[in-house]
Amino acid sequence: MEIKKSKKADLEGGKGLSLFMGMVIGLAVMFVGFEWGTYDVVVATSDAIADVIAEEEIEITRPEDTPPPPPPPPAPVASEVLNVVEDNVVLEQQEIISSEDNQMEAQVQTYVAPAVVEEEEESAQHIFTVVEEMPQFPGGDGELLSFLSRSIKYPVIAQENGIQGRVTCAFVVNRDGSVVDAEILRGVDPSLDKEALRVINTMPKWVPGKQRGKPVRVKYTVPVTFRLQ
């Protein structure tokens, strides 16, 4: 019995076609390989890129080898010079001044006291309250009381109202004995105070007060008594 082969199962029939296709593919690969050649690569450079590269470069500097400073010159050594004097040479005599001589000269000088002009002017203007010799009414305190009793005129208004009392007055006795700056330290009634000031201002000159033997201005106080009989 003869075996018949099917056309679909026949492998020998497609062998030639496969070989042809393989050759075509191989030629295509070779052609692509030749076309895929090496090309020159051109790198574009510009001034801006060069500047960036120059800025990024770090310059490394090394300190120069400087020689050390020279050492300071040695300090001069003072050499003592001794003058040798022979025994037969006569030396000049020098005067030696001691503190005792200065003291003797100071004791010989006379002391001149400063002028007392300013002190006298100050004492003339200054008003004392207590001095070595207090001012005094001519004739003493008894004459002062007699003068006040004779000079006082009792105000009529005070008499009618029955006003009486003691008025304390103060005044300044100048260097010449005159009485100035009379004032009321303690009053009783305006009418009595006014009369007391009038009598004080009519007093004669006093014997001025003295301090260190010289007349000075002194503030003096006198009570003036008003009493109804």
Could you characterize what this model shows?
There is one protein chain. The protein is α+β, with helices and mostly antiparallel strands and about 230 residues long. It has a domain at about 130-225: TolA/TonB C-terminal domain, CATH 3.30.2420. It is about 35% helix and about 15% strand. It has 7 helices and 5 strands. Strands 1, 2, 3, 4 and 5 form a 5-stranded mixed beta sheet that branches. The longest helix is centred in the first third of the chain and has 21 residues, at about 15-35. The termini are far apart.
Pick out its properties.
229 residues, alpha+beta, TolA/TonB C-terminal domain, 5-stranded mixed sheet, elongated
CATH classification, class level of the domain at 131-226: Alpha Beta
Structural class: alpha+beta
Largest sheet properties: 5 strands, mixed
**CATH domain topology of the domain at 131-226:** TolA/TonB C-terminal domain
- Extract low-pLDDT stretches: 39-46
The termini sit apart by: 206 Å
Mean pLDDT: 75
Q: Based on CA inertia axes, which overall geometry fits?
A: elongated
Roughly how much helix do the residues carry, as a percent range?
A: 25-40%
State the order of secondary-structure elements, H for helix, E for strand: HHHHEHHEEHEE
* Gross CATH architecture of the domain at 131-226: 2-Layer Sandwich
Strand % is 15-25%
Q: Using DSSP, what is the number of strands?
A: 5
* Cα-based radius of gyration, to the nearest Å: 70 Å
Count of helix runs: 7
